[in-house]
From TrEMBL:
Alphabetical list of InterPro entries matching this protein: Glyco_trans_2-like, Nucleotide-diphossugar_trans, TPR-like_helical_dom_sf, TPR_rpt
GO molecular function: transferase activity
Record-annotated membrane-spanning stretches: none
CDD domains, alphabetized: Beta4Glucosyltransferase (cd02511)
Protein name per the record: Peptide S-glycosyltransferase, SunS family
Highest taxon of the lineage: Bacteria
Pfam family, one: TPR_8
Annotated organism of origin: Sporomusa termitida
Length: 371
């Protein structure tokens, strides 16, 4: 029986669309996590020669084949074209919905206003030894099918969306077991050899691939070319500064490492990650006042709740406090050292460093009290 004068809310329906190739290690785990929360599963295979299709066949009757043409956007657009439900969800084979996020997803399905065109979700990319998220960003994950939003980009493709966007608290968790590390770099190199003009986004992601392969000098060249365009997304600009600092660190070039840490401040207020980098530099050079300044600034930096760029939770929570404990201990301010160790302990209570520091500092405090 429905309430008088009120139309019951109609739940949305969802097609899951995925492209896969040789994913026998992860695909079952992924599909088990979503099979009860979506209404349709579309799997497009781009050339598997392992047991991927056999495993997928346990979940669905039909698998679509797509001839691989070195273009991820083309494959994803084809997968989207096969969907029949109201909304489309996309995942990679090494992604999962944890139980808490399955529940949140079902809640969204039952309550989402049909005027919403896009639902973004968090993407958990890194974890510490205690299972807490260390790196996270946001992605557009669920889109209205009738909008025909296109995937763009042969590599590191993105979904071009507009309209009414809802930023949800649902998280997709990335759990890779292996990575075909040469695939993306090869595609970029082939495009480069053909004389293709790289967009600013291409320059940035090509530099990322070069860095992943420890080709530091070439990575530096393409990050610098990316920044020189002055057309990059601000989060990519900040990330490029971070990765340039990484490159120069690996090349033992401290001057340029510092240059790009400071350059990041051109694109926004100092982020906790860069403050911690500067704190670490001064700590290693026994410049305690400077180290304390930067680590304290890191503790005061704002923690973006809906950042679309990479969020480093370690630098925004326990790490600067643990380092302040070290700094204050070295200059004999034991009470402050103890205070910051305890603050760090609120974030990582089981960490052995917290126990060690607490025991050591307590003894120093007791000694000073008895003198």
């Amino acid at each position: 029986m429905k309430e008088c004068g009120r139309t019951p809310h109609k739940p949305i329906t969802v097609s899951l669309c995925m492209i896969v190739k040789n994913e026998e290690q992860t695909i079952e785990r992924c599909l088990l996590s979503v099979k009860d929360i979506v209404d349709e599963i579309i799997i497009v295979d781009t050339g598997s020669n392992d047991k991927t299709k056999e495993i997928v066949g346990r979940f669905i009757d039909k698998i679509y084949d797509f001839t691989w043409i070195n273009d991820f956007a083309a494959a994803r657009n084809y997968a989207f074209s096969q969907a029949t439900q109201e909304y489309i969800l996309w995942l990679d084979a090494d992604d999962v919905f944890l139980p808490v996020d399955q529940e949140l997803f079902l809640r969204i399905k039952s309550t989402l206003n049909h005027d919403i065109d896009v639902v973004s979700m968090l993407y958990n990319l890194g974890f510490d030894q205690y299972g807490k998220v260390t790196f996270q960003r946001r992605r557009n994950r669920l889109v209205k099918r009738e909008k025909n939003y296109p995937w763009i980009g042969a590599v590191h493709e993105y979904l071009e969306v507009n309209g009414n966007i809802l930023n949800s608290t649902i998280a997709v968790t990335h759990q890779p077991l292996s990575h075909d590390s040469g695939r993306n770099l090869k595609i970029y190199e082939e495009r480069l050899q053909k004389g293709e003009q790289f967009s600013p986004r291409d320059l940035y992601y090509f530099a990322n691939e070069l860095l992943d392969h420890r080709l530091f000098n070439r990575a530096i060249e393409y990050y610098q070319r990316f920044l020189a365009t002055k057309q990059g997304w601000v989060e990519d600009n900040i990330s490029a500064c971070s990765k340039l600092a990484d490159c120069f660190h690996n090349l033992n070039d401290v001057e340029n490492q510092l240059k790009y840490i400071y350059m990041s401040f051109r694109y926004g207020v100092p982020r906790a990650e860069f403050c911690c980098r500067l704190g670490y530099y001064h700590l290693n050079n026994n410049q305690m006042d400077e180290a304390i300044f930067w680590y304290k600034l890191a503790t005061k930096s704002e923690k973006p709740s809906d950042s679309w760029g990479m969020v480093n939770y370690q630098c925004q929570t326990w790490l600067p406090h643990l380092q302040l404990c070290v700094c204050y201990s070295r200059i004999g301010q034991i009470e402050l050292a103890y205070e910051h160790n305890e603050i760090a302990g609120t974030f990582i209570p089981e960490d052995t460093r917290i126990y060690h520091n607490r025991s050591y500092l307590k003894k120093l405090l007791e000694t000073s009290t008895n003198q």
